[in-house]
Specification:
alpha+beta, 4-stranded antiparallel beta sheet, 3 helices, two-stranded antiparallel ribbon, 158 residues
């Protein structure tokens, strides 16, 4: 195992070596929290801890796919696949992205998952796809209506 991976795993193990105790005053809420712990929240927290130690941050999000499960679960997203938006030091929103298509040129197509409006953004490939140098240029609210040109100016798609 590479040294950096070992350090990240050790750091995560120290943070989440014991499962957290999730407690609620409401009986239905407590039952759901217990269900989350039984269905694999602990490994998700360990993964988040490793990502946080390696990349300096990680996000937990609630996901739901009826083809996978009849209930929502918690997923981990690496910090280099997210674009956070802060307002006066508070996290206001996070846009997650996934590379959908990439060709041999510098063009890449990303799927942007935003709370308000999901969309697809066309742009340039980052120097290293595993560690982006900057976030996508197209804002999630404008992804379906605008594309970023090679010079960074927006133009109407179509």
């Amino acid at each position: 195992m590479p040294l950096a991976g070992g350090i990240a795993r050790a750091s995560s193990g120290l943070l989440f070596s014991e499962p957290p105790k999730l407690v609620s005053d409401g009986t239905p809420t407590q039952a759901r929290l217990d269900d989350l712990m039984k269905s694999g929240l602990q490994p998700t927290l360990l993964e988040g801890g490793e990502l946080c130690a390696a990349l300096g941050g990680a996000y937990l999000r609630v996901v739901w796919d009826e083809e996978v499960s009849d209930r929502p679960w918690i997923d981990t997203v690496a910090a280099d696949r997210a674009v956070p938006e802060f307002w006066y030091g508070r996290l206001l929103a996070v846009t997650f992205w996934t590379v959908v298509e990439s060709d041999d040129s510098r063009r890449v197509l990303r799927h942007l998952e935003a709370l308000v409006m999901p969309g697809v953004s066309a742009g340039r490939r980052w120097p290293s796809q595993s560690a982006p140098a900057r976030p996508p240029r197209t804002r999630p609210c404008c992804a379906s209506a605008r594309m970023s040109s090679s010079r960074g100016r927006s133009r109407t798609a179509g």
